[in-house]
Amino acid sequence: MRNFVQPGRTLTLPAPAAVKSGDGVLIGSIFGVANGDAAPGEAVDLDVEGVFTLPKVSALAIAPGDKVYWVATDKAVSKTASGNTLIGVATTAAANPSASVNVRLNGSF
After folding, report:
1. Which among 48, 23, 22 has a CA at the least distance from the CA of 108?
2. For labelling alongside 55, which of 9, 24, 35, 100 has CA 20 to 30 A away?
3. Nearest-CA neighbor of 65 among 95, 102, 90, 100?
4. What's the rounded Cα separation, in Å, for the pair 33 and 35?
5. Gyration radius from the chain CA atoms
C-alpha cells in the first residue's frame, strides 16, 4: 500500500508550550502523552493510544468506564464535558480526593 504513512499510535508534533515527559498535551483536537521533554515549538512525540496515569481534578470521584475530559487550564482530567476535550475512559476508580486516575486514551479525535 503506497499511501500508508505510519501506525499512528505515536505522533510527532510541535510542542505548544514547554513539555515534560509524561505530561498530557492538547494540540487542537489531538491529545497525547509526551514521550520526552520539549521546548515550545520543538518536536515532541505524543502517545495517542494506550493507558496512562494522568492527574485529575482532586475533588472528583471517577469510576471505571467513565468518560474523561482534559481541562487544558488545569492540565488535569475531569468528567465535565462543557469546554473540555474528550480524551478517553477511566480504567480505574479514583476517589474524591485523589491526585490521579488511569485513562485509556481514545486515539481518535
Report:
1. 48
2. 9
3. 90
4. 6
5. 14
Q: Is the pTM of this model over 0.85?
A: yes
Is 95 a residue whose pLDDT tops 90? yes
pLDDT digit string, tens, across residues 25-65 = 999 999 999 999 999 999 999 999 999 999 999 999 999 99
Q: What type of residue is 7? A: P
Which residue has cell 485509556?
A: 104
Compute CA distances 95 → 19, 56, 58, whole Å. 27, 10, 8
Q: Are 103 and 52 in contact (CB under 8 A)?
A: yes
C-alpha to C-alpha distance for 41 and 67, rounded to whole angstroms: 30
**What are 23-34's pLDDT values in tens digits?**
999 999 999 999
Q: Which residues pair with 30 in a beta bridge?
A: 27
Secondary structure (H, E, C), 39-97: CCCCEEEEECEEEEEEEECCCCCECCCCEEEEECCCCEEECCCCCCEEEEEECCCECCC
